[in-house]
Amino acid sequence: MVHGMLGRKVGMMQVFTEKGEVVPVTVINAGPCVVTQVRVAERDGYDAVQIGFEEVPARKLTRPQQGHLKPAGVLLRILREFSADHPQDHKPGDVIKADLFQPGQKVDIAGNSKGRGFAGVVKRHGFRGGPKTHGQSDRHRAPGSIGAGTTPGRVWKGQKMAGRMGGKRVMVQNLEVVDVLPEKNLILVKGSVPGARNGLLQIRKAVKG
């Protein structure tokens, strides 16, 4: 069995449990995904299953990409690899649907966080800011000292400063699957997941669950 699949974030909503409790959930349009290649240790040096997501017309892909996808019998926009219990049990063309996961199961979800543009240290790193009194008129959101003078005489690499915020790969672990609707290719996951609506997500079986 493959340990993960691809999907897109639909949005957030609320569901009610049998006890009447309100649970915030993220709705994910998961799959269907198609197996495009099987990696084996004897040939590739590792075991994995490559799957594809989102069918596209031929004009959207190059000739080499179309040739790679020919064994699967379908042209797909996005390709990713996941580990599997027995990769040799899969073959190109196999379809993976949302019922790969079950309610109550723990999953890890990765995606690209929302891009926030250029941000200061208060917003980007949670700095406290400078004093609001004693004549400080322009230090309220400043970073303060960024290093000593003569020694080392430079700014240390990795120093937390203002800069571009967000737009990076983020993974949230051990999220609970609340419900699965395989006929609609939907997965309902408790809590929030990285990224904006319609963002690409990688959903896998929790490694720490």
TrEMBL record:
Keywords, ordered alphabetically: Ribonucleoprotein, Ribosomal protein, RNA-binding, rRNA-binding
A Pfam match: Ribosomal_L3
Region of interest: Disordered: 127-151
Signal peptide (UniProt feature, chain positions): none
Domain of life from the UniProt record: Bacteria
An individual GO BP term: translation
Membrane-spanning intervals of the chain: none
GO cellular component: cytosolic large ribosomal subunit
A single GO molecular function term of this UniProt record: structural constituent of ribosome
SUBUNIT field: Part of the 50S ribosomal subunit. Forms a cluster with proteins L14 and L19.
Family recorded in the similarity comment: Belongs to the universal ribosomal protein uL3 family.
HAMAP family: Ribosomal_uL3_B (MF_01325_B)
NCBIfam families in the record: L3_bact
Main function: One of the primary rRNA binding proteins, it binds directly near the 3'-end of the 23S rRNA, where it nucleates assembly of the 50S subunit.
Protein name: Large ribosomal subunit protein uL3
Taxonomic source organism: Candidatus Chloroploca asiatica
